[in-house]
Amino acid sequence: MKFAVIGNPISHSLSPLMHHENFKALKLNAQYEALNIPPEHFHHIRDIIQAHALDGFNVTIPHKERIIPYLDALSPEAEAIGAVNTVVVSDNQWVGHNTDGIGFVKGLEQRYGNLDNARILIIGAGGASKGIAYTLTQKARYPIAVVNRTMSRFDDWQFDIEKHHLSELEQIAGQFDIIINTTPVGMNNVEESVGVLNALKEDVWVCDIIYIPAQTAFLKQAADQGYQTYNGLDMFVYQGAESFRIWTGQEANIEAMRQIVEHRLYQ
Ligand code: ATR
User: Kindly report the CA angle at 209 between 87 and 101, in degrees rounded to 5?
Assistant: First the structure.
């Protein structure tokens, strides 16, 4: 079996390392490569993938929406989210899926426990937010609240959420059991937080989908106040594990995948 991740840039992607570790743990004879595809070459994507004889591939920044017109079908969640990070190739038929939202939610559930009764607030309304919000709306009893800087971002959301402006964050944050930053603010050691967190519920979980650095300024302010924090490393691991499951029908070795990525990033 042969898989790949396509993106631009792609050289720093940890997906090949992570997937190879899973193949090794499962004793599978499979390959996973990183393909750099600049936007100006994207119209050749079907030829490129065919030339590499792939059985499936992941799609990352900046192609998660651009890939859609090239697909033969979309899963219901990819359709609702409007972005694709996993493509299954079978008999030259391409089916797009999105495992980012389920990846975050499955990872969080493993640590937090059942999310059914949690009141959840998401910060940001980009592709990652939409995936997580969509997955959570299928699960949680309470409406999912989303704050964003630009309210027009919600215009093409086809499922129900509670919309708020980012300026309301500080005022409403105390109502939630789980707060998730999905904006890129704080990535790559930028010492900036997307907002101020004060007077939260005592047992709140403050989460970030960023995992480089392991602790963003957003998570640090929460940790300094004694709140439970949770970064985006599990999301990365579980989105990969879900892609693998969609491609092969097999369960991935999550622990092997997490350990190799943690080791590379944090040790
Ligand atoms: P992704 O697909 O990775 O989620 P994206 O689609 O570029 O990324 O979305 C980024 C999100 O982060 C958006 O919600 C964006 O807010 P706007 O819709 O107002 O642009 C949010 N974001 C990015 N930089 C931000 C900042 N400095 N402050 C607040 N929100 C920010």
Answer: 40
Give this prediction's pTM. 0.96
All residue ranges of the chain with pLDDT < 50 are none
Tell me the per-residue pLDDT of 68-113, one tens digit each, with 9 for 90 and over: 999 999 999 999 999 999 999 999 999 999 999 999 999 999 999 9
- Tell me the CA–centroid distance for residue 184 and ligand 1, in Å: 6
Residues with CB under 6 A from ligand 1: 124-129, 148-150, 153, 166, 182-185, 194
User: Which position has the token pair 């937080």?
Assistant: 193
Of 211, 157, 223, 154, whose CA–CA distance to 186 is shortest? 211
Count of residues making up the chain: 267
Residue of minimum CA distance from atom 18 in ligand 1: 150
Q: How far is CA 223 from each of CA 75, 206, 211, rounded to the nearest angstrom? A: 38, 8, 15
What are the phi and psi torsion angles at 151 (to 5°)?
-70, -25
Which residue in 24, 64, 139, 220 is the catalytic one? 64
- Give the pLDDT confidence score for residue 83 in this predicted structure: 96
